[in-house]
Amino acid sequence: MTSRVSPFLYPESLSKTESLAIVHLKRDLQTPTILKDRDDDNEGYSEGKVINTRFGSFPHTTLIGLPWGSQVRASKVDTGSRGREKKRKRDEVTETAGPVEKIAKVEPEQAIETPVEAKNEVQENGDVPLAKKEATPSTAPTGFIHLLPPTPENWTSSLPHRTQVVYTPDYSYVLHRIQARPGVNLIEAGAGSGSFTHASARAVFSGYPGNATNKRRKLGKVWSFEFHEQRHEKLVKELQDHGMEGVVQITHRDVCENGFLVNGESPKANSIFLDLPAPWLALPHLARSPPPKTLEDVSVEAPNGDVEMQEEFAPYISALDPCSPVHICTFSPCIEQVQKTISVMRRLGWIDIEMVEVAHMRFEIRRDRIGIDNGNQHGLLATPANVNEAVARLVDVEGTFKAFHATGEKSEIKKRDKPNPNNKQKILEGLIERKIYKEGNLVHRVEQELKAHTSYLVFAILPREWSAEDEANAKLKWHVEKKDGEADKGHAIIGMSKRQQRRAEKQAHKEREAAAAAALKANETTEIEGAASEAQEEKQPGEDMALKSEEINSAVEIEEMKSVAAVEQTRR
Amino acid sequence: MNFHSLVQPDSWVAFRLPSDTLKVVQIAPNTVISLGKYGSFSSNDLLGRPYNLTYELLDAKAGQKAAGLRVVPAAELHADTIREEEEAANPKSSDDKVVLGGDGVEYELVGENGEVIMRSNRETIDDAASQTLTMAEIEILKREGTGAGHDLIAKLMLSHTAIDQKTAFSLAKYKLLKTKKYLRRFTVLPLDVELLTNWYMNERDAGKIMEMRSEMLALTGSWANVHFSESLPDIEGGKWLIVDETGGLLVAAMAERMGILYPLEGEMEPSTEKAHRRDEPALATSNTLTMIHNNAQPNLSLLKYFQYDPTIANPPCPNHPLGTHLHPLSWLQLISPEKDTTYSTPVEPLSEEVLGSLKPGKRGTYYRKLRRWKRTTNIVDTTLSGGFSGLVVASQMDPTSIVRHTIPLLRGGANVSIYSPTIEPLVQLCDHYSTARRTAFITAPPESFASLSTDEERDNWKGDEDFPLNPTLLLNATVQSARVRSWQVLPGRTHPLMTAKGGAEGYLFTAVRVVPARGRVEARGKFGKKRKVDEVVTPGGEGGKSEPTEKKIHLSVEEEIKLTLMGENTQAVEAVGNSSADVEMSLS
User: ipTM beyond 0.95?
Assistant: First the structure.
């Protein structure tokens, strides 16, 4: 099974058996189904495995081998007699109570679906009821579905909820922010229902182990942790069914207690997502170096590690990638959790801590048709469309009123006599002849159901550790020349626009000239020196002076930089 | 994934300055980097060092011009906040008995002995005059200042006459303000897609990237299901169609998702072979982005920040993964390739002898032309063969016209995701896929469509006035939007940021390409609660209904609108039939 590829990552062109497909009924009603060409659970349909929906029944055989996105018509499936059939069968089984009998029950149904396989089995078992063999699905007059390939998005909206789900707007932003790209090792703690697991697997996937096309490419992996046993089991099964085994490694573990090492090995994580009730308890396990207190505590972290390892002075294994900055996101619904998390993050040396929330809206787009001239039609708001219509109606009512008073006659027109505008013919007529899909104002509004708050997202970064030794090595490699020399005009200063540089240069030049002139003046007339300098000071009072001096400053700086650069140049 | 581990020579980095502005610079070795008023330093002090560190500019020694750098440890960055937190936790330890309330409301509490337990801002003088240092003095301090601005800030705080009147919060705010202005500190950040987006949104021309915020960029990519998908030995990989008018930002974001934005380690090293002159590396066939552009050349100017510049050479940057995985073609080449000169004029292959007799310059031209023609034909032909896994669009053009020409190229189940800064174009597009329109289309297809016999012709149907697009080819047409709101989280002062950026909200249209069944398809549906239309004819009015009944009918009408027109509540055709039954029932 490990060699299987995931339909999430490689949907291929046709739907195939034993592979996940999404049966799309309508936008918010999609059913994930693993297509099977045989009915292993023996549900008693003559058509084999069948999926029943509100839009009809669909035997799996009608869904296998189709191009993705195909519209599939419902089949006529006898759902009614199934229960009785089953019961009858069960009775038979109890009567004869033979294991052979039981097998024979299962086989005939398989025989219908996989004729080639069936032939052999028929030979073995001999007895096959003829009536069953004829039950090939026939198309029902109404009802259809669309068959879609699974994506993390439609999986998120259709998955069986076990916990609160991380929805698409949240996970897409989180994955973008924590730099989950192909080749990344990602830790996910609190896998829950698995929506984030699937999305992150898609994000970090960069090839299956042993199948890599480019040896240089690092294979990305999701290291998932779930502390709830049943949820963990379900997720393991799900990931197996989805062909995700090579991409997601799931561990049953309380990470707050036991840390993130898997079998004593480090996930070497670059990105981390914590969807835990108390992320601050897990944070100390996500450090680059052991906590300063006791080393013994740390070695206990290795969960499946040998006892000897704990007793000896085991070297600290960090769960993080030592060669890259680590990006983290925690996902908490309450502000108190956020405050605690951030407070702990600050103490543990995380930087660029930022908290955000994502607001998401879906829009309903429709045509608002307003008017009274057509009676009560579907989709028509029965109010006057404009003043003219309102006045016309009032006049009409006024006339009836007068007639009533004048003659005492009640208007004879009853509802029943009015043509009903809402029968099928009328509506289709409206659609096809009047083209009401083009009438009215095209408007949009936010959909009724709105998730006003999902959770707060806390992002932070833990930079790569940088020792004095590393710094010394880097210094050696990128040596900075520090010696004064003559200014070299051609040397680059980056970070300043050309205009800024030119201005600074001009300013510096001006200053130099001014200084020279002042010096000359001073030499010539030593007597009025004091007065001159006073005048100069008066010229630049307050802010003006501040501005100018800043400019002078930068000009001088440039001069200085240039001289440094020049020295470097000459050295080289 | 070590691309953003250490600062490499010639890579683009962003400096975050104390004022929270970004300065983006390409780091060349042996240069001086100027950070304006904050100072300058040698680029060699950064090269080979990790990203995400914060540095302080050391005071330049006399005679030395570029200042040295000091790494500011995280503990120092957070020192103030941590101290504040601790003081809040144990109020005894603080000397002046300042108690911080948790709610940020500032009270004045005076103890029995007259000591201030908590200050309020009632007494503060809203006047700049409280600062006794003059501009001139500050300037001198700045020039001679030591300790990367720490001394200056300390002096400023000391000489503020009303400092003891400030509440703890306003004191912190004052310090922060001065820190932003005078502290000579900066953080080195890798210029990735996220940062590039923020930089363009906040400090550059947001219009150039169509005001596409990070969250919308991420959402667009997710809904288009863009991911790494290189062909396996026996399984075909994926390829995506992209229409990008954001100067390459969208391409960069999608390429990042596909793992083709950053070169793998050692991949960018220039190869010594001269083979590139004659043969470029073969175009990738999977995990590719095919970009359709509306000018003769694609505008991918933002890709230069990722070491890819298509304008400098042909083939562009042969060692960059985008060189083989990004396939640009123009709309002309897509729609009528025969009118495109490059495509329609094949370069005649020349024999070795003829080549040998050519002047080197001419030979070069010949190879260049041959390469270009080969590349173009290859791209156009593979694009026209279709089978794309998804469509991603951020364009100023009418989305309807884009969809019309790209939909036939998508395989079934392909995801479509179209970004627009404003909602109106998407509302239009969505209306072309409304249930009412689809129902009309299925029930009575227009003559020009019904006469087509093959599926291929039907997929390529160009639409008419009533049905600009074939409404049965896309499913789940939805328009959505997402927006991120930032919060400040400080002890006792947690709240959303006071200011954010306005501008275009940004919307996303998503849908799935489907393959409609041939022939007439009838829908089926059972609709939740059936509300009976209580049409009791009350005497005494032509209107026929008394007020309360009218209300009831009104409700049911709204519901029906949902049923028949919004469609997502039921299946299209049957909806019509069923609800009519509903009405008939109520009438009888």
Answer: no
